[in-house]
# Entry
Amino acid sequence: MLNGQPLAGPYEDIMKEVPLKIEHNKEWLVVKAEVGDDRITFPAPVNQEVLFRSVIDLEERKNVLILTVKGETETIVKIASVEKVLVILKRLILASCNAYRLMAYFMSPAIRGGVLVKNAQWIKGSIVVIRSGIWFASTEKQVCIPLRDVSAIELTKRDVQGKQTDVVRIDHVESGEVVSSLVLCPLLTLQVLANYLKDATKGIDMQGNELDDIGQQVAMLVYSGMDSHAIENMLNLSHKQLDDIYDKIIKLGIAEVLVVRKEIQLTTKGVRYVTDLTKTQTN
# Structure
């Protein structure tokens, strides 16, 4: 059951008792958990009941759900199962967890790398904002944007059925690529949502003057996909100068190390090796 309605499809029966794995005392145990509208209960040796309304955070990593549960002390519950079971669990948790939520239409992803996603459609569901992420949730689909990956939030306009309509656009970084999701609901609600999301992500805001002109240019060139060698040539920088700028950018938390580039110098043995190669090629 969900909000007084039976669970859709074949899950109506199997969701009463579900085989899954739970991390207990740093080990993964296979158990049969009982799942209801508002809670999940794990049998011995775990002996734990989690009320969905006490969940204050939900993360997903591959086929593992990570729940942060409020109590006298916060506890972490890790659950692993097949995708079909996780979809149902996410839907139930997101419907009841301790979060900011509203009903809306969403399109995620709508734009990837500046290009419209083919066959992207508006989906009716809810927007759920919790401690670590923004969830788009419907009966069949749950998509999470980690707050740490949000790069921009904007109240803008979008063509919807031939009419310019107000939407909230959420840009985030996924595998090094900028992806945009859209939210559609009444304008007043959109304004409240935009302000709430901006407040939730203000920890990643910057003043804009943390880098000098050269540093800003380097950051923009990295964003465009240019490699280090090309940046050095374009800005007439030495290897050390660029490394110093990279160090500052990394310390600001706006970039991370992808590859450590090595500079080498031949030893005497190496010099002899190359010299012999040269003689061999000459002969």
